[in-house]
Batch of 2 targets.
Target 1
Amino acid sequence: MAHIEPGQLADPYSELDLRRYVAVFEAAAQLARDPFFGLRLGEEVEIEQFGPLGIVILAAGTLAKAMCAWARYSSTWQSGTITEVVSKGDVWECVYQISDDTVRPRRQDTEFTLALVCRLFRGTLSRQWAPLGIQFEHAAPGGLETSAARRLYQRTFRCPVEFGCTSNRILVDHNDLDVPTVGAYHGLAPHVEHLLQTLERPGQLPERLSERVTRAIRSRLGYQPVTAPGVASALGLSARTLQRRLQTEGTSLRTLVRECRRSRAEAMLADPRRQVTTVAHSLGYAGTAVLSRAFKAWTGGAPRTFRGKASGRC
């Protein structure tokens, strides 16, 4: 059971390490006996309670700027996560992903975050706004077949919701991007942004390129090809520079892809509800045979054997 000291509860800027933070959500859902605890909590938080980041989102001016502000400054609220805005033609995506695949279960945190972000965006436009769709990496929760559970997701997001996807995404219609926001904090935006910039963990060591590449790989696995030109372009580098700089850090793109695939495969296979075929496709493999060969090279055994051992540990 997760534990928080009383003094931490009294300080809104007190920090928890990510693993314990996520565990708090799961523990709260168990104590409340509410499997939809995170989803409901995300519905109830007011924008002003979200602190400086909420004010910057409200003051952004357009939905596109609000989305970019969320992706840019969300690390001041929660570290150890991938938050980015990706353009896919007529659809823009807000991606949210915990970087460490071993931090599980994490469904409550994920549903809380996407419900809260949708609430923030809706508050900047109008109460009628809705995204095109919501995608969750976790499997469909038990009880989803009941009408009450379906109504809860529909009330929260007002759009189709998918489960078992490669990552967590809010899909936004490009026609909504330039709609003016209705926030009342436009004059405060520069001052609050300056505050957020000071909260971006000053004093940390400069981020290694391999860490940035790993994030880029995780956001693409099973969704688009992971190639040196594609990853390099996303990071503003040439493919040759990417490979050379990774070599100086003692690694390579191929090694990082393999590590990402292995950690995600092990995390997904630990969930007995996920089919091995789904896991293979989520890693960008053509089928289970390819996954099985890769998994045997990693661990010496088959995916189903690993799943049996993981279930025995639980």
Target 2
Amino acid sequence: MTELTVKLPDELARKVRAAGLLDEAALEQLFREALRKQAAGEFFAALDEIQALKLPPMTEEEVQAEIGAARAERRTRSGK
């Protein structure tokens, strides 16, 4: 387990402590939530980039063919 030392302005530290956010469980929850938000932001940014490409919609058959090709490539790489 990693141990961290954090420096905060005194007033902020008092408020954070009073809110019960300085214990290990609360800090872990805060970090996990921040990581989830970051991942969601990156996901939506990627969607925006894809939408900006203005590609024509794919048919169901095209989607299934892409999925099949990706799975086959993964099997080839893993040696199965």
